[in-house]
Amino acid sequence: MSRPGTPEREFRSRCPIATTLDIVGDRWTLLILRDLILGKQRFSEFLEAPEGITTSVLTDRLARIEAAGLATRKPYQTRPTRYEYRLTKKGRDLAPVLEAISKWANRYYPGTGRVSKQITAR
Amino acid sequence: MSRPGTPEREFRSRCPIATTLDIVGDRWTLLILRDLILGKQRFSEFLEAPEGITTSVLTDRLARIEAAGLATRKPYQTRPTRYEYRLTKKGRDLAPVLEAISKWANRYYPGTGRVSKQITAR
């Protein structure tokens, strides 16, 4: 089943929560989107995240992020070709999701850092 | 590394987004929390969700939800013992996350249903 404005893909139901989770509902995608919102653009920058993402997971998730229309890439270097990624409006519009997630963690896990202001400021 | 107020568990970083995703960042947990917010309480009710969760995944996620303090259970029947689940305040406080997720899907995937009002009304 395909949906208007999206690449052909299967969604589990018409529920908006299930649909969003089908796109970003794994342990890594929202962390890459966090880094994109905070201004990171390059593969090597995403790899530096303290969560220790592997190159193969990062490659896979960046391709999915681009396929879902959440970011675009363009080459900034040849031999070898390397790409910079930038959020689309659709991707940037996930900021309120990240903000709500951050606020919840700050309330219940006092040891967590503060990122919600940095996210909403962009 | 353990955190105050939680069962002992590992978090990938001090980032509040990573911490939340370590708890609810999979394809199913937030869907069960959606159903709890919408008033479902019993295993058989969660199984009816249109996304087609399996009994083994549901059993696993309910145990994690309880261990994370997002819901409590109490028996409503014996031989065999069956339990009803209810959200704690900590679990109910994830409603703004579900609401933000729903709004984003409604904006970009017009075929999705509307649940955000039902979620915030509870």
Q: What can you see in these coordinates?
A:
- 2 copies of one chain form a homodimer.
- By secondary structure, chain A is mostly helical.
- Chain A is about 50% helix and about 10% strand.
- The first copy, chain A, has a two-stranded antiparallel ribbon with strand order 1-2.
- Chains A and B meet through helix 1, helix 2 and helix 6 of A and helix 1, helix 2 and helix 6 of B.
- Order of helical and strand elements of chain A: HHHHEEHHH
- Separation, N- and C-terminal Cα atoms of chain A: 34 Å
Describe the biggest sheet of chain A?
Answer: 2 strands, antiparallel
Helix tally of chain A equals 7
Strand content of chain A: 5-15%
Structural class of chain A, please?
mainly alpha
Helix content of chain A: 40-55%
Uncertain residue ranges of chain A: 1-8
Query: What is the 3D shape of chain A?
Result: globular
Could you tell me the mean pLDDT of chain A?
A: 90
Number of strands of chain A: 2
Q: Which secondary structure elements does this structure contain, and how are they paired or packed?
A:
The structure is a homodimer of 122-residue chains.
Chain A: H1 16-24, H2 29-37, H3 43-47, H4 55-67, E1 71-77, E2 82-87, H5 89-92, H6 95-108, H7 116-120
Antiparallel strand pairs in A: 1-2
Please outline what is shown here.
The structure is a homodimer of 122-residue chains. Chain A has helices at residues 16-24, 29-37, 43-47, 55-67, 89-92, 95-108, 116-120, and strands at 71-77, 82-87.
